[in-house]
């Protein structure tokens, strides 16, 4: 079944239809228009799947997508132009150009936590690059997957863009095909399987994975603001965000004060939402039970309550968490925040270096030396100084992990670069033939 789909897309790709820049621009406009037309349906689907509020749906799903499309449309004509490079003395008479070529037929596999954005943002890159695409959304958010599938069917032909709904078997069946590029967003364990599948045909790929992203709060940090930004970044979408601060290291001297700021901001930002049933739910019973099992890994400072029927967990902060507790050994991906205290930076750095490379890291400090020591002394994908999450919400910064937290990056120009191949072409003159290369004279070759 998918073999035919891929063949159909490959024939369409080789017809040349997707290469034209004005065609790509039109498709980007169409995608934005289609999203706008279906906004109500999308918001409703996100509410059904994750109990996202309308404002959160705009803030974290539709808004970033509109921004990504507009940014791409603004720059695509310039980015897609062939680039002229300099000519080396040894190549006199020739011209060198870099052509930004589409890969061909691409596969985009998406997770459930931002089900619309994480499927369509890579699609923006695929369209801009001049590719065809098969999207595989998550089975855990079926309402959003269905809206995406209907939208794509209504506005695009399946020889150009298709959505394959379904669970693991669908993903595996797709991965068994020969694609020209694979863009995967999801867990580390599945990322390894995707890489293995890609290796069969040496298919180039991007892996946007997860992991444990720490926030470090120095004693000179503006504590109230640090707590507010950590609370927002951690508990938005009920902590189900790949770059949410997974845990916090706070300097011992400010630990007690930090808890009271956390308490205040959780109350201000999330109390009413939770009470009015406007707070996102945990995606499945399995994840809900996994998260509840973490509650005993420390002492509850804030929160601790949950609702088995609605699958909601109130934003919770834990202290006195042991290093070997299970909450410290897997990605939390839910609204539970362990806080650990420290006195020496070297120990914090040693501990972070021992683990897998975080996807994100957040430093809260006024002291520039401390900021630099942490930012440059630790391996991680990207992050913020004195903020959380915001580095991924701009098309001007490439977003991606490092090693265990991912391979490659996207957003803005990086999406265009990801979904194109830099093809170097040298055009040689036929008016004359410089004899130097035929001589194989050591002296001349050294001069060149
Ligand atoms: P997941 O890896 O379980 O699933 C992701 C996709 O892979 C889904 O479409 C799923 O159907 C498919 N899949 C699952 N098992 C598969 C298998 N054995 N073979 C092939 N395909 C398979 O991830 P998830 O639970 O949907 O998402 C949560 C994870 O994603 C977290 O680890 C989170 O940190 C990460 N994430 C990363 C980013 C990022 O941009 N780096 C963004 C969001 C989520």
UniProtKB/TrEMBL annotation:
Report the family membership. Belongs to the aldehyde dehydrogenase family.
Pfam families from the entry?
Aldedh
Q: Where is the Aldehyde dehydrogenase domain?
A: 10-425
Q: Provide the active-site residues from the annotation.
A: 208
The organism's superkingdom is given as: Bacteria
The record's listing under CDD domains reads:
ALDH_YwdH-P39616 (cd07136)
Q: Which SUPFAM superfamilies match?
A: ALDH-like
Q: Gene3D superfamilies under this entry?
A: Aldehyde Dehydrogenase, Chain A, domain 1, Aldehyde Dehydrogenase, Chain A, domain 2
Keyword presence, Oxidoreductase: yes
Q: What is this protein called?
A: Aldehyde dehydrogenase
The record's keywords, sorted A to Z, are: Oxidoreductase
**PANTHER family of this UniProt entry?**
ALDEHYDE DEHYDROGENASE, ALDEHYDE DEHYDROGENASE TYPE III, ISOFORM Q
Does the UniProt entry include the keyword Nucleotidyltransferase?
Answer: no
Identify the InterPro entries for this entry.
Ald_DH/histidinol_DH, Ald_DH_C, Ald_DH_CS_CYS, Ald_DH_CS_GLU, Ald_DH_N, Aldehyde_DH_dom, Aldehyde_DH_NAD(P)
């Amino acid at each position: 079944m998918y073999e035919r789909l891929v063949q159909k897309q490959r024939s369409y790709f080789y017809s040349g239809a997707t290469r034209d820049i004005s065609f790509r621009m039109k498709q980007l406009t169409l995608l934005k228009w289609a999203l706008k037309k279906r906004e109500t349906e999308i918001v409703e689907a996100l509410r059904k799947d994750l109990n996202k509020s309308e404002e959160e749906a705009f803030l974290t799903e539709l808004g970033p997508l509109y921004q990504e499309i507009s940014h791409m449309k603004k720059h695509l004509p310039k980015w897609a132009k062939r680039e002229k490079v300099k000519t080396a003395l040894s190549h006199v008479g020739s011209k060198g150009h870099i052509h930004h070529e589409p890969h061909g037929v691409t596969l985009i596999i998406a997770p459930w936590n931002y089900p619309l954005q994480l499927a369509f943002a890579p699609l923006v890159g695929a369209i801009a690059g001049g590719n065809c695409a098969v999207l595989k959304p998550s089975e855990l958010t079926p309402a959003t997957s269905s809206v995406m599938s209907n939208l794509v069917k209504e506005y695009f032909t399946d020889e150009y863009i298709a959505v394959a709904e379904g669970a693991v078997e669908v993903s595996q069946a797709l991965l068994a095909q020969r694609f020209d590029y694979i863009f995967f967003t999801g867990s580390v364990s599945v990322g390894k399987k995707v890489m293995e599948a890609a290796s069969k045909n040496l298919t180039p790929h991007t892996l946007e994975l997860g992991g444990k992203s720490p926030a470090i709060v120095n004693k000179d940090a503006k504590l109230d603001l640090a707590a507010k930004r950590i609370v927002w970044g951690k508990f938005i979408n009920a902590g189900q965000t790949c770059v949410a601060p997974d845990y916090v290291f706070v300097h011992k001297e400010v630990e007690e004060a930090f808890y009271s700021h956390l308490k205040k901001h959780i109350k201000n930002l999330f109390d009413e939402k939770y009470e009015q049933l406007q707070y996102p739910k945990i995606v499945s019973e399995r994840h809900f039970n996994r998260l509840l099992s973490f509650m005993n890994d420390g002492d509850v400072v804030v929160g601790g309550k949950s609702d088995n029927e609605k699958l909601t967990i109130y934003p919770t902060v834990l202290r006195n968490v042991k290093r070997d507790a299970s909450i410290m050994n897997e990605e939390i991906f839910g609204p539970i925040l362990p806080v650990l205290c420290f006195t020496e930076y070297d120990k914090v750095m040693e501990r972070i270096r021992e683990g897998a490379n975080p996807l994100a890291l957040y430093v809260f400090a006024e002291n520039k030396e401390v900021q630099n020591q942490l930012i440059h002394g630790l391996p991680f994908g990207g992050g913020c100084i004195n903020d959380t999450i915001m580095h991924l919400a701009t098309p001007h910064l490439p977003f991606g992990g490092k090693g265990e937290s991912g391979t490659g990056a996207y957003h803005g120009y990086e999406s265009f670069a990801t979904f194109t191949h830099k093809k170097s072409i040298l055009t040689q003159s036929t008016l004359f033939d410089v004899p130097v290369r035929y001589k194989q004279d050591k002296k001349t070759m050294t001069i060149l």
